[in-house]
Amino acid sequence: VQLQASGGGLVQPGGSLRLSCAASRSDFAFNLMGWYRQAPGKQRESVAFVPASGTANYADSVKGRATISRDLAKRTVDLQMNNLRPEDTAVYFCRVRVGFTDYWGKGTQVTVSS
Is residue 94 exposed (0-12), middle (13-18) or buried (19+ Cβ within 10 Å)? Predict the structure, then answer.
């Protein structure tokens, strides 16, 4: 499975952006689709993900500011982030799980700065 992420860039504090991730075709179901991020000098962390149940999970740091949406038919997972803060600056990665295997996109840089 290959993942193609897009939508990163430079945003001013308080601004918004939408990250999109498209997955290539898979013969098996996507058990999980989500977005993660890694800031310089920090470990990769979960931002938001949707497991097979369909119930979205959000990191406390983005609750109320982020909305994740997936389209299983289109094999896409998007992340809408509003009211961005400088601490949201990171490389954002999309991830999908097929069976017991995780696939990661290459990452897209999000910089929140004035």
Answer: buried
pLDDT at 15: 97
**Residue-wise burial string across 70-84, b where 16 or more C-beta atoms lie within 10 A, e elsewhere:** beeeebbbbbbbeeb
- For 4-43, what is each residue's pLDDT tens digit? 999 999 999 999 999 999 999 887 888 899 999 999 999 9
* Residue 97 C-alpha from the chain's centroid: 13
Among the listed residues 22, 7, 61, 57, the one whose alpha carbon sits nearest the alpha carbon of residue 39 = 61
The per-residue b/e assignment along 30-43, b for 16 or more CB within 10 angstroms, e otherwise, is bebbbbbbeeeeee
Phi-psi group of 107: left, alpha or beta (phi > 0 → left; psi -120 to 50 → alpha; rest → beta): left
- Scan for tokens 């696939």, then name that residue: 103
The identity of residue 16, as a single letter, is: S
